[in-house]
Amino acid sequence: MSAIDEAKSYLGQLAPRISAKDRRVARVIRGLLADREATCTWTDDPEGIWHTDCGEAFEVHAGSPGQNGLRYCCFCGRKLAEGST
Predict the structure, then answer these.
(1) Burial level of 13, CB count in 10 A (0-12/13-18/19+)?
(2) Is 85 in the same domain as 59?
(3) I need a labelling partner for 1 at 20 to 30 A (CA). Which of 30, 62, 63, 78 fits?
């Protein structure tokens, strides 16, 4: 078992016993350990809220996430891809 597989397994074992904040941190770490080509697609709604593939929402006041310098999802750690609604 590789070090990455061991880390993923350990995080999976911890998940039921940790707080919501720590689960978010664990999700980011798992995302960073995931396939480097994996992406998290963000799509915007008419109110300007961007919804993520990983189940979160983010408000951008002006422009798009990419126009504001976001390259990675701040929730899961995967590369950010912008989708259209």
Answers:
(1) exposed
(2) yes
(3) 78
Whole domain around residue 59: which residue ranges? Answer: 37-85
Distance of alpha carbon 35 from alpha carbon 25, whole angstroms: 18
Count of domains in the chain?
2
β-sheet with 57-59: strand ranges across: 57-59, 49-52, 39-44, 79-82
Task: Please tell me the distance from the alpha carbon of residue 71 to that of residue 78, in angstroms, as a whole number.
Answer: 9
Do 29 and 41 belong together in one domain? no
Say if pTM beats, i.e. exceeds, 0.70: no
Are 55 and 28 within one domain? no
Local mean pLDDT, 10-residue blocks, the chain (85 residues): 71 68 75 74 93 94 92 89 83
CA distances from 23 to 12, 18, 35 (A): 10, 6, 20
